[in-house]
Amino acid sequence: MEPIAVYLVDRSTLFRDGIKRLLSEGGFIVKREASHLQDLLTRVDSEDAPHIILTDIAAGDPLFPQHLGALRERFADVRIVILTDELTPERIGVAVQGGADGYLLKDISVDALRQSLRLVMLGEKVMPADLATSVSGGEDLEARRRSHKAVLAKMSGRETEVLRYLLQGLSNKAIGNQLNISEGTVKVHLKGILKKINVRNRTQAVIWAMVNGIASSLAPTVAAAPAHGAPPGSDIAVTPRPTIAPAGFNAAPGKSALKVVIVEDELLVAMYIEQTVRDLGYEVIGPAGTLAEAKKLFEVSDFDVAILDVRLRQGELIYPAIEILRERRIPFVFITAYGAEGLDRQFGRHPVLKKPFSQRELQRCIRNVVALQ
After folding, report:
1. Considering its fold, how many domains does the chain have in total?
2. 234-285, pLDDT tens digit by residue?
3. What residue spans of the chain are helical by DSSP H?
4. At which of 118, 134, 150 does a domain end?
5. What does the alpha-carbon distance between residue 101 and residue 177 come to, in Å, rounded to a whole number?
6. Could you list the residue range(s) of the whole structural domain that residue 319 is in?
7. Which residues have CB under 8 Å from 323's CB, separation 6+?
8. What is the CATH number of the domain that holds 155?
9. Whole-number Å distance between alpha carbons of 344 and 177
10. How far apart are CA 210 and CA 229, in angstroms?
11. What is the C-alpha to C-alpha distance for residues 274 and 181, in angstroms, rounded to an integer?
């Protein structure tokens, strides 16, 4: 069996040497290594693609998100896994917005690291247990979001502002400077936020907002930091994913944007797709995480196109719901970690995106299926 090719990025030469040895004993091969992502960009080309890029998040490097995005563009099918020593709001933000397929801590065991990388190769998302606990629970995704948005509505205006800046990775002092209040007052508001959303610390508060779809509703209307620069008080820039104008689908005056239904059972993947669709200028409906939820959305919602994960919760397949789309003559796109090979034979020629996919690939696929309808 061909070994899984890895590009390894970490500032520590000693750490890289150790990881290379450990991975080589488990069916992996480290083809290239570097101290920074920028080094990879200058030394490799698209024909020398790895299966996985395993990288630490470079503290103090405001261009890290851009470098991550550039590697995504160069290696369309590569999996990106963050292997770092801290679970912080800044680093979680960079990982999520960069479309990382995994977020692992360096205290992970060797066996767990190898298994996590294998799962990533199968299209799974991997993360620390603390973060996994925050996003699991099996409850209805839409019900959870409604519940948490109700909690958000109970926050004071000042608490909402503090949470907004918290999502940007700002320190208490930097938040105080933005709001013209003391650091002590920021701590009081932060304590109130933690109590209302029932979490223990600021990192869990950021995770709570991200995984429950709250982050987008808290996006500031005016940028709080210079373009391409680090936010005040933060060592890492949390740079939003660049928006690609939806060519051919710019809404005419008086017309609404294209409406897209999302069916995806994995919460972090659903969040990524939802934000990507919004960045394209489209309106999101859903997401649905079960077959029953999907059928209900298909029957009662007004929408133009559907993005469909194939395998849903408890082993359910999306196929029984597709008849509703066909009756309504609504185009759809499959998304699966296995590409066309993961589809039932009757859909073998239907448009499908292989996870992970880029924003540009999603836009092109949506545009094509709508044009064909």
Report:
1. 3
2. 222 223 333 333 333 443 334 458 899 999 877 657 767 877 788 788 988 8
3. 13-24, 37-43, 64-74, 89-97, 110-121, 129-135, 141-153, 157-167, 172-179, 183-197, 202-211, 267-279, 291-300, 319-328, 359-372
4. 134
5. 35
6. 259-372
7. none
8. 1.10.10.10
9. 56
10. 22
11. 34
